[in-house]
Amino acid sequence: MAMPSADEILSEIRTWVEVESPTMDAGAVNRMMDMVTAEFKAMGTATQRIPGTGGRADHVSVSSPWGGDE
């Protein structure tokens, strides 16, 4: 799969910015992470969800097949 264009990336970032996800609201942040994870998977990346602790939201690790040693 080809790397997304800058316009595609900026469009997704704009969508993310418009989602309410206050830092201290783990449920809202996790809903945001659901959206981010789905979008990155659709672009052909590998994602790993890392559960939050102490009432905090999850983290997401993303690895892409783009770039590297060419």
What's the structural blueprint in terms of helices and strands?
Elements: H1 6-17, H2 26-42, E1 46-50, E2 59-63
Antiparallel strand pairs: 1-2
Structure description:
With 70 residues, the protein is α+β, with helices and mostly antiparallel strands. It has a domain at 26-64. The chain is 41% helix and 14% strand. It is built from 2 helices and 2 strands, in the order ααββ. It has a two-stranded antiparallel ribbon. The longest helix is centred in the middle third of the chain and has 17 residues, at 26-42. It is flat, with a radius of gyration of 14 Å. It starts with 5 loop residues before the first helix and ends in a 7-residue tail after the last strand. The model has no long low-confidence stretch (mean pLDDT 89).
Poorly predicted ranges:
none
Overall shape: it is flat
Largest sheet: 2 strands, antiparallel
Radius of gyration: 14 Å
| Approximate strand percentage | 5-15%
Question: What is the tally of beta strands?
Answer: 2
Relative helix content: 40-55%
The SSE order reads HHEE
Spatial strand arrangement across the major sheet:
1-2
* Ends apart, CA distance between termini: 16 Å
